[in-house]
Amino acid sequence: MLPLGAHRARLRAWRRRRPFWGGLLLVLAGAELLLVPLSPLPVLVSLGLGGIAALGIGAALVVAGLFLWCLPQARAYVSVHALLLSVLSFVVTNLGGFFVGALLGIAGGALAFGWTPRPDGEEEGPSRTAPEASGPPRVLAAALPVALLAALTAGAPPARAAGAAGQGPPVAARTPPTVTTSLFAPRGFALAEVGEVATADGPRRVLVLKMAAASLRDYRLRTRDGGQEYGLAARSLELRGDVTLYLTRFSGCIEGLVCVTFSPDGLPAPPVIPPFVFMTRVSAEQALVTSDVIVTEGLRLEAS
């Protein structure tokens, strides 16, 4: 009985560090949507456009559930899209798997979005792992983007000489300026991770977003160093070629629907951001930005 009890304790500890039940409901919802159009019962609608859509949405929900188990830090992004797919299944499939799959998906997405990680101080002694952040989810978060984007990055522009020499980004400002924009739209896949950037007061933890290009609308930047403040404003801002953003805080509304706030010490950004995702009403603390080319329209400098 002792080995069985140890396995149950490890399983319990693993389950408490991720939205397990939300992911399980999404896997069940996807499996139900996959099975309904393939059922041999004659009363079901024959496999057509609705059946093909059910196969695609069902597979996507299963993958979303597995992502919630393996990458719990991406729960906000994954759960929002799982909810959208579940609602969409009512229209494009056989009534969302005759309501069962759609309702399971909606419940699973809601549970995953509302889940919050347990504070370190509340972990029970035998169930704690030290450190949590260095466990399998962090390894998967680092390896998955490389595996998914290896073919896509083959034609990407070569890295700059400074990065190749290992010099890293330049020293950032002591107090990150604030940036607001009505629309932030990365082009192509974007990668996100937590890193550090050098400042006059020492290294600072930041969210690092890497992408091929990005478009911003109604761009505003304001320094916060105290004394005389400066600002930049532009109707549009285009970042092209090896774009890297170093942010201490990043908030906005995903697809203009769900508003979230990402930070290196709070809710981290999903490790892989698909090209069709955009954010509106963005407000960020930008420690640093690097890009090969910056194109602006209506740029003006403000001072106070």
UniProtKB/TrEMBL annotation:
<feature type="transmembrane region" description="Helical">
    <location>
        <begin position="20"/>
        <end position="38"/>
    </location>
</feature>
<dbReference type="InterPro" id="IPR046096">
    <property type="entry name" value="DUF6114"/>
</dbReference>
<feature type="transmembrane region" description="Helical">
    <location>
        <begin position="82"/>
        <end position="115"/>
    </location>
</feature>
<keyword id="KW-0812">Transmembrane</keyword>
<keyword id="KW-0472">Membrane</keyword>
<feature type="region of interest" description="Disordered">
    <location>
        <begin position="117"/>
        <end position="136"/>
    </location>
</feature>
<keyword id="KW-1133">Transmembrane helix</keyword>
<protein>
    <submittedName>
        <fullName>DUF6114 domain-containing protein</fullName>
    </submittedName>
</protein>
<feature type="transmembrane region" description="Helical">
    <location>
        <begin position="44"/>
        <end position="70"/>
    </location>
</feature>
<dbReference type="Pfam" id="PF19609">
    <property type="entry name" value="DUF6114"/>
</dbReference>
